[in-house]
Amino acid sequence: MSTNVVLVVAIVVLVACGTTLVLERSLTRILVGFVMLGNGVNLVFLVASGEAGSAPIIGSSDEPMTDPLPQAMVLTAIVITLGVTAFGLALAYRAWQLTGHDDVQDDVEDDLVTRRADLDHPSASFDDVTAGMPDEEGEDEPEPTPQVGGRHTDEGTHPREEAR
Amino acid sequence: MTQIVVLPVLLPLLGAGLCLVFGRSAAAQRIISVVVLGAVVVTAATLLVRSDRYGPQSVSIGGWGPDIGISLVADRLSALMLLVSTFVTLCVLLYSFGQGIVEYGRETPLSVFHPTFLVLSAGVSNAFLSADLFNLFVGFEVLLAASYVLITLGGTEARIRAGTIYVIVSLISSTIFLIALACIYAATGTVNFAELAIRLGELPPGVAQMLQLLLLVTFCIKAAVFPLSAWLPDSYPTAPAPVTAVFAGLLTKVGIYAIVRTQTLLFPGDGLRGLLLWASILTMVIGILGAVAQSDIKRILSFTLVSHIGFMLFGIAYATQLGLSGAIFYIAHHITVQTVLFLIAGLIEYRSGTTNLSRLGGLARSAPLLSVLFFVPAMNLAGIPPFSGFLGKVALGQAGIAAGDWLAITAVVASIVTSLLTLYAIVKVWNRAFWQPVDPDAEHEDEDIWSHGPLHGHEQVSTGTQVTTMWEKVATEQRIPLSMGLPTVLLVAFSVGLTVFAGPLFAITDRAGAELLQRTPYISAVLGDQR
């Protein structure tokens, strides 16, 4: 089986540019990258369908026909790409409306955990044994006094304080 | 009678159209959605009985042969997945009615929710029933497109942020799927599962393995298998509770289902056993360590979701009847339990205005019924006997011990460690939200951390927790309406039912595992239809 080199070169360029753009921060660029990537992949289907032939209508020509199935798949893929790109653009516009840019943002809660670790700050879910835990009967429940031990005793030397 | 295989795909799509027509009437939309999903549950139950009794049920749509047309097949695995998933979807839909009062104000257009939800259900059904790879791709795209809308519902800042990452990751995985499809078509000239099962065996082993890896990467992104799982805990927690619940229950399981289907039918044998076992060990352990570090109920649950995907992968990796049976049982168990836990997180949020553990407390005293509702599925997730989580883990452990080599034993040990750490994470939620009184000075803790400079792209910080503080003023100490409580109770009862009827269920999953390994029933059901 012979392969069309022009198609392969086009695929390489589209996929390479698309991948580079997808790695950007801005959602619009990512979408342009995705469109290029999608078009590159659609061309892969054309390579996959083998050699080009006549129109795939039975009886229209004596020459061998092109395989119609990959073309049907590419059509489906194009429609899906269209819909998703439209949604992505709406998403980018909404992000711009809300924040004035469309950069993909960091995961806030994840960063919170990292920062706690950097500051040597106990996790918000850290169970402090001395900090007003009710015992099994619940007798020593609400302690109105400030908590002792754990996260509040070392306030003065805490790295969090130094950083201020 | 085999024609009913198309109903789980067709009915929700028709219902979605009708819902759009009646977009102005919330009552009409509710009736349509419930009737449609109810009918799909009945269909799925019928399919399970029929496929168990008479073998896989297959339909070639439009009378085209399986080589060029689209076939839908319901074997035991598909039908069981379909039944559990549609039942769970129905419960979540009922739950969303109750939440509608609060959550869907001016910000969240109610008229979009029902049609999108039904389209999501159609996409999930299509993925479960599809008998060719391209239709599986279409099923994935349908459910993903619906999920994009649901995850950004209302377009608030936190949801747009989380939705962006979710959309981009999904787009990349779809692109890889398309590349895999093109390569498979180039190598074999077909995308039909049954024909592929025959033709892939004739390929040179190197080519076949590359195709297998391409598909595996695609489905591992969708199923959130480590190291392709980082997107999930970031994007799920910000969506409305019913949306997160249905995503957590279904979407990753569709990915797992696709892995089961392709690994058993298309690439039989255990060629990637080592890789899959390592992936499952790392998913289990790293996922649960993430859960231990979090301090928000929804985020803890998202990480346990990632972690427990590892259990299912672990059963698939052995490619034995015991392993597959355990994995299928575990999927059914996990869909139910994870969904119900997210619904309960939604109830906690509704009642207290937050799911942040630092601000919660004393729920066991103020909401005893809610505590019981949380406790049962939570212990089930951690795998405490006698619940179905325990039974599923025992089955998987047995499969591991039966395999007997050091890697399998390592995986069994990792699964036990993961179960204990799950228990730790869940007990942490229990202690802090239900038993301990509210910590009065927790409010200021976050502010200190944020005073150290902003994140990339944030002028001011908006987290899931800060969005919920808006509700905190409105929703403090509200009573939970019956319309939200009842579906949750129903699902908890269903998850307990999985424990009670574990015997018959294991009998079905055993037969499903055997059927998957034999491969011939499926292949002949599809190709036998050829005219």
Description:
The complex is a heterodimer of chains A (164) and B (531). Chain A is an all-alpha fold and 164 residues long. Chain A has a domain at 1-54 and 65-122: Helix Hairpins (Orthogonal Bundle). Chain A is built from 5 helices and no strands. Chain A has helices at 5-22, 27-48, 68-99, 108-118, 159-162. The longest helix of chain A is centred in the middle third of the chain and has 32 residues, at 68-99. Chain A is elongated. Chain B has 531 residues and is mostly helical. Chain B has one domain (2-440, 464-526). In chain B, helix 2 packs parallel to helix 4 (110-129) and helix 11 runs parallel beside helix 17. The radius of gyration of chain B is 22 Å and the shape is globular.
How many E-type strands of chain B? Answer: 2
In angstroms, what separates the terminal alpha carbons of chain A? 70 Å
**Which oligomerization state do the chains in this entry correspond to?**
heterodimer
Q: Structural class of chain A, please?
A: mainly alpha
Spatial extent as radius of gyration of chain B: 22 Å
How helical, in percent, are the residues of chain A? 40-55%
The main sheet of chain B comes to:
2 strands, antiparallel
What is the general shape of chain A?
Answer: elongated
Largest sheet of chain A: none
How far is the first residue's CA from the last residue's CA of chain B?
A: 19 Å
Overall tally of domains of chain B: 1
CATH C-level name of the domain at 1-54 and 65-122 in chain A: Mainly Alpha
Uncertain segments of chain A: 138-164
Which radius of gyration of chain A do the C-alpha atoms yield? 30 Å
Summed over residues and divided by their number, the pLDDT of chain B gives a mean of 83
Q: What best-fitting shape of chain B do the alpha-carbon axes yield?
A: globular
Helical content of chain B, roughly? over 70%
The total strand number of chain A stands at 0
How much of the sequence lies in strands of chain B comes to: under 5%
Mean pLDDT of chain A: 75
